[in-house]
Amino acid sequence: MGKGWLRGVIGLALLAVLGLGRAVQAASTSGGNDAAEWTGHASCAGVTREQLSTPECDALIAARPVPNVTPVPFDFGVVDGVKFIRFSQRQVPLYDQPDGQRVDTLSAGFTYVAVRQMRDGWAEVQPGRWVSLDLARFASPSTFTGVLINGLDMPLAWVLWPHCATNAPAGRRSCEGSGQLVRYQLVNIYATVNVNGWDWHLIGPGLWTNQQNLSIVQPQAPADFPGRWVAINTYEQNLVAYEGTRPVMATLISSGLRERQWETKTGTYSVRLRMEVGPMDGSAGSDDFYSLEQVPYHMYFHGLVALHGAYWHDSFGYTHSHGCVNLTISDSKWLYEQWVQDGSTVYVYD
Fold it and tell me: What pLDDT was estimated at residue 6?
């Protein structure tokens, strides 16, 4: 089950803001470079807890300061230009026109609706049904996109939250210049050492960060399936698209919350249905009720569990959903159009 429980007290501030959780487990080894599986590049194999740099590793970092990738194109596709709103109360009055007569009530849980048109502080959300925008807030879809992998001979990782690197494993904070790390920043992992059960990763010249701060993609595929398939790592909260064992695309996801009824179940599945856009709803009559209009790029692989775009949050890299695998709109469009077909294998592991 991954490497830990709670990705560190220092990350809890962000988790509280996002309303999310991320399960982690400390490595069982300690000291030196004695983790169960060494992580990094062969040129940095001489880096240890006692020897924090080598000429070979320094040369690699200078030559390859960032991962060898290309961003997935930013594209909202089928929902480009659509505005979505959520309401601030559960019973939302509907009117026949702006400042008109009340004609109905919308029962809203976690509900986003698509705006048909707007006029004078009002939004039409159904034909002839208007709501006051004083009761609503607009969705802000994430602009994050994953990457197309040009070559992967060492791990790459996304920084999950803003923090300072350290000058050594479990060392002093290094906040100047490149030591100030930002959310969604992409880094190479050149070497890894383990200190008191935690992996510390070398991500730049004299810059280290703890495993709890990153979502990591390893060069080795976690399984071997023919053709095009995708792997979902629910611990690291990322997805990698493979051609055989060659990684082609990688991105952050949000899978099911770490509660028994919402967890995205591990296993090997096949995509059975694809839809370019459509509604999603569930848990009617409960506090967990949700209703989402025009969800883009559904790829169902386990009952009602699907890969799909999510315009209602920017929490990628952390669990968030009721079991589905949330992606940014751009990433879901790329997978839907370029990679995932009916029958494609989806491998979910932890």
Answer: 33
- Measure the CA–CA gap between 296 and 187, rounded to whole angstroms: 29
* Alpha carbon distance, N-terminus to C-terminus of the chain: 6
What is the pLDDT of the chain when averaged over all its residues?
88
Rounded mean pLDDT, 307-313: 96
The C-alpha angle with vertex 192 and arms to 187 and 195, in degrees rounded to 5, equals 125
Separation of alpha carbons 212 and 14, rounded Å: 12
What is the number of H-type helices and E-type strands within the chain?
3, 28
Q: In this predicted structure, what is the pLDDT of residue 13? A: 37
Q: Which CATH number fits domain 228-349: 3.30.1330.10, 2.40.440.10, 2.60.200.30, 3.40.50.620?
A: 2.40.440.10
> What residue segments make up the domains of the chain, in order of their start?
9-63+154-217, 84-138, 228-349
What's the CA gap between 36 and 213, in Å, rounded?
A: 20
pTM above 0.85, yes or no: yes
Q: Are 159 and 144 in contact (CB under 8 A)?
A: no
